[in-house]
């Protein structure tokens, strides 16, 4: 079982995530796989996602921390950098990953991405187009989706 | 008078002979076997072309490129690094990082550095002092695995961010195995930009990874540098450094592959890069298939599938499930046909309608497509067959170098150095096949309406083709006789003279041809359409060679003086003594 010789780093990170969680973020490891985390991020205030609770999954691959964690939204979300499978377009999850980054920093970055969508580097072409052509309307849709899918049920 | 001169030139007496002999003076060293043959033929007259051979020499010596072996590349790279390190008074590691950032351009590094050193240091990540200080601390926590280690187990880059040795190793080796991006590696701390140099690599990674890193560094020196490129031949490990400003892009690597520096396709003189690109696209373009379908098929009148009629009568039945029966000529339903429409082999409806002009438009289109397809096929086939022929010649050359030369040297009791003329002949054949091949792409794109040019071009091409065939034949068939013999043959020296002569003649002819074509056959305009057929390569080459210092007047004079004593062979243009009835060079009878 992978849990038996879990690197010290992962254990320490997990302990810290549980003992001093970042505001608006919770991450707890799955019971049968310590590399798999159930994550919840609260929609940042003054964003279209305010009031929503977004579920994510995070997995630490064998190479972690030399390779980036794998993160995906489980809750449906209307966001130009997140596609309908919940995959996230974020540089630090790809080529900008550095082993000096942590689960905490990754989740904080995702939270920041909710506050500041970047339609110029889109993952979801249609949503990005919507965002650029009529931001107000796109924001309305995002709020609507937050109400529909992320209302903490 | 003038046209007479042109006619006279058509015999190529002087042009090729001049070149032939000058070719030999220029390569004097390895060709001493020529000397007796020159004296025999009383060819002193030809030597007044000293200028010409000089210009040839000069043209050859101004080689615009250098082939680099791995050791040369390393040496150059070291030199550049040392130069920058010396001028900027920085470490060699830092100099290497800087050069890598500025694509190995020493002058760009210097310019940027002296314009704004601080800015350069910042963008490249060369810190002057650490961001983090660890004086008087015995234990440090690794920023990656979070373990605490004694100071000695921790390494830092110039910034001072502490990571343990095993995390460093993991970080560096992950990056190295990710590709050449490792050459631009920075400190793991995302907010830090400190560059990681080769010193860290050498200190911290396995030998295997060090080797990989060094490979990338070497590759980067060639690939990121604008003045160098790898030889594109498969398996070749040489690189070529090209001097900017040279007009001749043809580059030949030590591996014997020639390529165009500009477009990296194989060498394609006399055709320009644009034409080559067009031709290559054309060769693989779907459009030719479409042309074929258009030219050779008609769509089924019912299901519209294209149908090729390759034999039989006009009664067509489309493939199931369509199974429509129709007449090939008028494309009407077969059921409407019968005795009254002209029976099974003709279609009166078609004939009548054709007379009325009903089918004109489509027929014309089909005819045009067919013609253009045939034209393309003509050029493509010849292009491709010269390509094949060249491949064969290359493998023959290889065979010659690895097997036959040694055997021949034993059998004929000649040192291998004296058999170099055979290799040279084969090298020439390979080169000529290449040129000839590209002349077909040239011909294909020669504008239809320039009749005079076209005629002249085809004449030159035809001559080139037959000249090359003669050489190829001699190197292939006649040499075979000597390969089959066990002992020395008295005829071997004659063979040597002949093959070396043919090589030289062919080389000069092709050099002139290349220059004439690169010149856009410019002479045709001045000569007019009528004399174009009669104009020899002399005129085409003469003008472009004019700057080489060879006055037309002198060469004409010399040829007149020799005309009385010599006759020019119609086949190989060799100037023979008047008394000879067969050509000394190619053994064909005088005509």
UniProtKB/TrEMBL annotation, chain A:
One of its GO terms (biological process) is root epidermal cell differentiation. InterPro entries: UBC (IPR000608), UBQ-conjugating_AS (IPR023313), UBQ-conjugating_enzyme/RWD (IPR016135). One of its GO terms (cellular component) is UBC13-MMS2 complex. The active site is at residue 89. Pfam families: UQ_con. Signal peptide: none annotated. It is an enzyme of class 2 (transferase). Its EC number is 2.3.2.23. Residues 5-151 form the UBC core domain. Keywords: ATP-binding, Nucleotide-binding, Transferase, Ubl conjugation pathway. The keyword ATP-binding applies. GO terms for molecular function: ATP binding; ubiquitin conjugating enzyme activity. Interacts with yeast and human Mms2, with the RING domain of RGLG2 and with UEV1A, UEV1B, UEV1C and UEV1D. Belongs to the ubiquitin-conjugating enzyme family. Catalyzes the synthesis of non-canonical poly-ubiquitin chains that are linked through 'Lys-63'. This type of poly-ubiquitination does not lead to protein degradation by the proteasome. Mediates transcriptional activation of target genes. Required for postreplication repair of UV-damaged DNA and for adapting root developmental programs to suboptimal availability of iron. This is E2 ubiquitin-conjugating enzyme. It comes from Arachis hypogaea (Peanut). The lineage of its organism: Eukaryota, Viridiplantae, Streptophyta, Embryophyta, Tracheophyta.
TrEMBL record, chain B:
Keywords: Metal-binding, Repeat, Transferase, Ubl conjugation pathway, Zinc, Zinc-finger. It is an enzyme of class 2 (transferase). GO terms for biological process: protein ubiquitination. InterPro entries: Ariadne, ARIH1-like_UBL, E3_UB_ligase_RBR, IBR_dom, TRIAD_supradom, Znf_RanBP2, Znf_RanBP2_sf, Znf_RING. Pathway: Protein modification; protein ubiquitination. Residues 1-53, 525-561 are annotated as: Disordered. One of its GO terms (molecular function) is zinc ion binding. Residues 1-29, 37-53 have a biased composition (Acidic residues). SUPFAM superfamilies: Ran binding protein zinc finger-like, RING/U-box. Residues 526-544 have a biased composition (Low complexity). Residues 563-591 form the RanBP2-type domain. It catalyses: [E2 ubiquitin-conjugating enzyme]-S-ubiquitinyl-L-cysteine + [acceptor protein]-L-lysine = [E2 ubiquitin-conjugating enzyme]-L-cysteine + [acceptor protein]-N(6)-ubiquitinyl-L-lysine. Its cofactor is Zn(2+). Pfam families: Ariadne (PF19422), IBR (PF01485), IBR_1 (PF22191), UBA_ARI1 (PF21235). The keyword Metal-binding applies. Its EC number is 2.3.2.31. It comes from the Eukaryota. Residues 138-351, 142-186 form the RING-type domain. Belongs to the RBR family. Ariadne subfamily. Might act as an E3 ubiquitin-protein ligase, or as part of E3 complex, which accepts ubiquitin from specific E2 ubiquitin-conjugating enzymes and then transfers it to substrates. This is RBR-type E3 ubiquitin transferase. It comes from Crotalaria pallida (Smooth rattlebox). The lineage of its organism: Eukaryota, Viridiplantae, Streptophyta, Embryophyta, Tracheophyta.
């Amino acid at each position: 079982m992978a849990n038996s010789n879990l690197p010290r780093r992962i254990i320490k990170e997990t302990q810290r995530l549980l003992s001093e969680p970042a505001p608006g973020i919770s991450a707890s490891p799955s019971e049968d796989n310590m590399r798999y985390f159930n994550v919840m991020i609260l929609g940042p205030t003054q964003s279209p996602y305010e009031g929503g609770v977004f579920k994510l999954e995070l997995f630490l691959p064998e190479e972690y921390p030399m390779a980036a964690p794998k993160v995906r939204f489980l809750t449906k979300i209307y966001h130009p950098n997140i596609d309908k499978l919940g995959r996230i377009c974020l540089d630090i999850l790809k080529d900008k990953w550095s082993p000096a980054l942590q689960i905490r920093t990754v989740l904080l970055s995702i939270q920041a991405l909710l506050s500041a969508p970047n339609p110029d580097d889109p993952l979801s072409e249609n949503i990005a187009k919507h965002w650029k052509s009529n931001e107000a309307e796109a924001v309305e849709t995002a709020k609507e989706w937050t109400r529909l899918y992320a209302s903490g049920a | 008078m003038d046209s007479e001169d042109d006619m006279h030139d058509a015999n190529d007496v002087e042009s090729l002979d001049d070149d032939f002999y000058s070719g030999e003076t220029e390569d004097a060293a390895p060709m001493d076997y020529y000397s007796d043959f020159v004296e025999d033929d009383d060819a002193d007259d030809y030597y007044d072309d000293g200028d010409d051979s000089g210009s040839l020499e000069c043209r050859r010596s101004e080689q615009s490129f250098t082939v680099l072996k791995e050791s040369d590349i390393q040496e150059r790279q070291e030199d550049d690094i040392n130069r920058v390190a010396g001028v900027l008074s920085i470490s060699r590691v830092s100099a290497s990082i800087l050069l890598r950032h500025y694509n190995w351009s020493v002058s760009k590094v210097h310019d940027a550095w002296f314009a704004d050193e601080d800015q350069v240091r910042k963008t490249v990540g060369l810190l002057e002092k650490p961001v983090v200080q660890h004086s008087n601390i015995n234990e440090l926590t690794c920023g990656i695995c979070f373990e605490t280690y004694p100071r000695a187990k921790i390494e830092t880059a110039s910034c001072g961010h502490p990571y343990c040795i095993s995390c460093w190793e993991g970080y560096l080796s992950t990056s190295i195995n990710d590709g050449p991006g490792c050459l631009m590696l920075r400190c793991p701390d995302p907010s830090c930009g400190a560059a990681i140099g080769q010193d860290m690599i050498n200190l911290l990674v396995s030998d295997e990874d060090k080797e990989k890193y060094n490979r990338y560094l070497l590759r980067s020196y060639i690939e990121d540098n604008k003045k160098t490129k790898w030889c594109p031949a498969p398996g070749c490990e040489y690189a070529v450094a090209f001097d900017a400003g040279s007009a001749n892009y043809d580059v030949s690597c030590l591996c014997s592959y020639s390529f165009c520096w500009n477009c990296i396709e194989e060498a394609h003189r006399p055709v320009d890069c644009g034409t080559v690109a067009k031709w290559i696209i054309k060769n693989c373009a779907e459009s030719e298939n479409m042309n074929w379908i258009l030219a050779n098929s008609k769509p089924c009148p019912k299901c519209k599938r294209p149908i090729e009629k390759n034999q039989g009568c006009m009664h067509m039945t489309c493939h199931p499930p369509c199974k429509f029966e129709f007449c090939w000529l008028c494309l009407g339903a077969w059921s409407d046909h019968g005795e009254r429409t002209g029976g099974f082999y003709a279609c009166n409806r078609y004939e009548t309608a054709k007379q009325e002009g009903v089918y004109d438009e489509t027929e014309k289109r089909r005819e045009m497509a067919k013609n253009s397809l045939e034209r393309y096929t003509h050029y493509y086939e010849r292009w491709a067959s010269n390509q094949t022929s060249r491949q064969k010649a290359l493998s023959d050359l290889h065979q010659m170098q690895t097997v036959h030369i040694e055997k021949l040297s034993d059998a004929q009791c000649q040192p291998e150095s004296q058999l170099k003329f055979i290799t040279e002949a084969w090298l020439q054949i390979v080169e000529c096949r290449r040129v000839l091949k590209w002349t077909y792409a040239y011909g294909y794109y020669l504008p239809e309406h320039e009749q005079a040019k076209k005629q002249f071009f085809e004449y030159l091409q035809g001559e080139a083709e037959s000249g090359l065939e003669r050489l190829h034949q001699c190197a292939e068939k006649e040499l075979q006789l000597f390969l089959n013999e066990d002992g020395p043959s008295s005829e071997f020296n004659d063979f040597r003279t002949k093959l070396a002569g043919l090589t030289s003649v062919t080389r000069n002819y092709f050099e002139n041809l290349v220059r004439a074509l690169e010149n856009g056959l410019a002479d045709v305009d001045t000569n007019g359409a009528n004399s174009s057929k009669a104009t020899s390569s002399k005129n085409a080459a003469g003008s472009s060679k004019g700057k080489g210092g060879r006055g037309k007047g002198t060469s004409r004079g010399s040829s007149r003086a020799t005309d009385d004593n010599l006759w020019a062979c119609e086949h190989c243009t060799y100037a023979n003594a008047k008394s000879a009835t067969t050509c000394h060079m190619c053994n064909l009878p005088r005509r």
